[in-house]
Amino acid sequence: MNTYISKNEFETINLAKKIASQLTKKDIIVLTGDLGSGKTKFTQGILEYFGLANEISSPTFTIVNEYPTPLCPLYHFDVYRLQSIEEFYAIGGDEYFENGICIIEWGEIIQEALPNDYLQIKFERTLESQTLRTLTFTPFGKVNQNLTNLLERI
Hints:
Blueprint: E1 2-6, H1 9-20, E2 28-33, H2 39-49, E3 64-67, E4 74-78, H3 85-90, E5 101-105, E6 118-125, E7 133-140, H4 145-153
């Protein structure tokens, strides 16, 4: 488990770009944290890395947005509004895991549907500053080795 302190949105976006540079097909990143803690800004950084900065939109009402990247499809989930895990299965959510890179906001809601191997990033606000965020990285199962190596250097 590693921790990173982000001083502002710019740092969060830049960290996400570094992480995006190591992503491969079937990588899953689960983002947890309160509303406004930086999950969507982090996703914006991932999309910026792939040249999709202007494409980001919150999938809050559609549950998942798909973005083409040169590597593979990138699926951005926001499962906040799901009423049950059955809704996730009903949209075929678990089928996305094998087909591309998955970024899942509020992933703790679908914990039981997640495969064994994923990276969880917990976003926490601090009392010290409006812009300061603590990001805690916890790998579950086998996480892409290049990504693991990067996280060790953070």
